[in-house]
Amino acid sequence: MHQELMHSTDDEILEVVDENDVVVGLATRKEIHQKKLIHRAVHIFLFNSAGSLFVQRRSPRKDTHPLKLDSSAAGHVDPGERYVDAAARELYEELGLRAQLEEVLRLPPSEETGFEHVVLYATCTDLTPLVDPDEIIEGSFVPPQELSAKMSQNADDFVPAFLRLWERYQGRRV
């Protein structure tokens, strides 16, 4: 793919954190990803009143996991930003929605999460998301059982962190 078509924010500055989520410095997004430095991210699960989850397919211009299925919205935490504020910002930027967010769970950094401390938030609305075409090429509400079946049948079609978050989310609801 031509570099000019890639949606990249390589020069974006992010906080580097340690295993305990304590800030230890700053680096560019590109450096963080190349050196596998630990940093922060949020994911948002947007449900409708029927209990279906909005699942997005990432833009082909994304520099990580292009065209993969992902959480309703997700993104990095900016320097000095609280996780909940990053989640609210990403929900608005990617889906054009503002909503009350509930922290659901946290994942420690690992290869699976892209070396990110991940905080998952959830919310519910019957409003129609207005997807940002630079971020998302399509999205739809998917019933939980159907989503779990799709993940079992074709895990390679999903962002790894989303797979892990969904597994943990489902496990905590038993």
From TrEMBL:
InterPro entries associated with the record: NUDIX_hydrolase-like_dom_sf (IPR015797), NUDIX_hydrolase_CS (IPR020084), NUDIX_hydrolase_dom (IPR000086)
Residues in Nudix hydrolase domain copies: 37-164
PROSITE patterns given in the database record: NUDIX, NUDIX_BOX
Molecular-function annotations in GO: hydrolase activity
Alphabetical UniProt keywords: Hydrolase
Keyword Mitochondrion: no
UniProt-listed Pfam families: NUDIX (PF00293)
Record's keyword annotation contains Hydrolase: yes
SUPFAM superfamilies (alphabetical): Nudix (SSF55811)
Top-level taxon of the source organism: Bacteria
Record-given protein name: NUDIX domain-containing protein
Lineage: Bacteria, Pseudomonadati, Thermodesulfobacteriota, Desulfomonilia, Desulfomonilales
